[in-house]
Design goal:
The complex is a heterodimer of chains A (86) and B (417). Chain A has 86 residues and is mainly α. Chain A contains 3 helices and no strands. Chain B is 32% helix and 18% strand.
Chain lengths: 86, 417
């Protein structure tokens, strides 16, 4: 969680030009001024940075920073499982 | 019928990111045209008139979809114009409309997307591609930013787009449908694909061998076409009563609008169609040809275009045509397509306001068959202007002409943004 969180936080700070101190796992995206469309776009940033594919059904809109971290972790484990099966 | 006045202006162009900077550059014929090797697709280096403008700085990334460059320019110009007008939009504004023009819409976003798909084989398009690229994005973003809840309409009439938008808004205010309008146009199509397509049409200027900045030479004997520019211009229109009520300073009255279609050729201009549009605009404004002191010509510096426009002006202005100053400012700010009408109308209004006529730049050798007063190379100051005209003639044969008239002293504003 911690390592993923730190990377997600760094990406958010870079993408949205926000104060790093304001980003915690419990921070709602709305509190950071990240609206629904910006959250949709951020999925792209995550996919490129982590080299993952986030499930299309995952909806980050209106969630917490922690939800993003969980989505990244979930995508990474799914990818590992697929790699192991192959 | 309500009279319509102009109470605010804003611009982003290759020769200045404010109306004052734009007008100053136009007066001294400071060209924004340059060679753009970064946009070349072959050995031929294209010419552009690009604006010094950071689109990413316009809206924070947390908010909504990313803006196409043209939309960002639109919003930046509108912020200037609304600030200049002194209007404060608090909450809902159903009596205000947005009338916007664009020719090609979000050319940068479209080209980036297609590059991803066809060049990089990346079919993963950004989730906000549609919202960013739709042609009405500028009007929508303006409405959102200011809570403007009246009509929001986008006009796409090629090079006449923003002139048509301005004229249609004038009509809506005149007839009382609304009493204020944010009008103008934006265009940002300096992409490799768009430049290649225009180049293939053989309408673009070739680089001047001595100074590339002087490549677009309207009305010159050695004219060879235009240079594509980018930018936006926004104006605030209000009914005269509303402007008076709030004590707003007024630049000029938007007095007339004429519109016609050639129905003759998809690309070649027609003196018949242009003449009908100019005549209709003057009649609409109740302005006689002898009252017009300045015409900002469409003047694209194509061999045929400048000849036909000269013929149209001569047909309408007849005996008085030698006394009407005519200039094309495209040689310095480029041809800004859907935004060009609004940019050039802004210049015409500032000419009226200041009594200074901008020159036709790079006019070393006038084509002797174009027998108008073309204001070659040097501005004229201290000119008493009563009315000015701005011509916009589009591919597709659409002609749009705007007329602005001087406003009486008490309502006239003393300063310019």
């Amino acid at each position: 969680m911690n390592e993923t969180f730190e990377r997600v936080k760094a990406l958010m700070v870079g993408e949205f030009q926000i104060d790093p101190a304001s980003v915690t796992p419990a921070t709602p995206l709305t509190e950071l001024g990240v609206d629904s469309l910006a959250a949709l776009e951020f999925v792209f940033v995550l996919e490129d940075a982590f080299r993952i594919t986030i499930d299309a059904t995952t909806d980050l809109r209106g969630g917490l920073v922690g939800d993003i971290v969980n989505a990244v972790n979930r995508a990474q484990s799914q990818q590992l499982a697929i790699a192991a099966a192959a | 019928m309500h009279r319509v006045v102009i109470t605010g202006m804003g611009t982003i162009t290759a020769i200045g990111n404010s109306p004052a900077a734009l007008f100053e550059s136009a007066l001294v014929a400071r060209s924004g045209v340059r060679l753009a090797p970064e946009l070349a697709v072959s050995a031929a280096i294209p010419l552009v008139a690009s604006a010094a403008f950071d689109a990413a700085a316009v809206v924070p990334r947390q908010r909504g979809a990313p803006l196409d460059r043209a939309t960002a320019m639109a919003l930046a110009a509108v912020r200037q114009a609304i600030g200049d007008s002194g209007i404060r939009f608090d909450g809902q504004s159903p009596d205000t409309g947005i009338y916007w023009g664009t020719g090609m819409g979000a050319a940068n976003t479209l080209e980036d997307s297609y590059r991803g798909i066809f060049q990089d084989n990346n079919w993963r398009l950004r989730p906000t591609s549609i919202i960013t690229a739709m042609n009405n994005a500028p009007a929508a973003v303006i409405s959102l930013e200011y809570g403007i809840t009246g009509p929001s309409i986008t006009y796409s009439v090629a090079c006449a787009s923003s002139s048509v938008a301005i004229g249609e808004a004038m009509r809506a205010i005149r007839h009382g449908a609304i009493d204020c309008a944010i009008v103008g146009g934006s265009e940002a199509m300096l992409t490799r694909g768009m430049l290649s397509a225009w180049s293939a049409l053989r309408a673009l200027a070739t680089p001047d061998p001595i100074d590339a900045a002087c490549s677009c030479k309207p009305f010159a004997a050695d004219r060879c076409g235009f240079v594509i520019g980018e930018g936006a211009a926004a104006l605030v229109l209000e009914s005269f009563e509303r402007a008076q009520e709030r004590g707003a300073g007024v630049y000029a009255e938007l007095a007339g609008f004429g519109l016609s279609s050639d129905a003759a050729h998809i690309a070649d201009p027609s003196a018949e169609g242009q003449t009908r549009a100019i005549a209709a605009a003057l009649q609409d404004a109740s302005v006689r040809p002898e009252d017009v002191g300045y015409i900002n010509a469409h003047g694209t510096a194509t061999v045929l275009g400048d000849r036909i426009e000269t013929e149209s002006i001569r047909r309408i202005f007849g005996e008085v045509s030698p006394r009407v100053a005519v200039s094309s400012t495209k040689g310095v700010h480029g041809h800004v397509m859907g935004a060009t009408g609004a940019i050039e109308f802004t210049i015409a209004v500032l000419a009226l306001h200041h009594g200074s006529v901008p020159p036709t730049a790079h006019l070393r050798r006038t084509d002797p068959s174009l027998d108008l007063d073309l204001v070659p190379n040097a501005a004229r100051h201290g000119v008493a202007l009563e009315a000015v005209v701005s011509n916009s003639f589009a591919f597709g044969g659409s002609n749009a002409v705007l007329v602005a008239r001087r406003i009486a002293e008490p309502q006239r504003r003393s300063t310019v943004a």
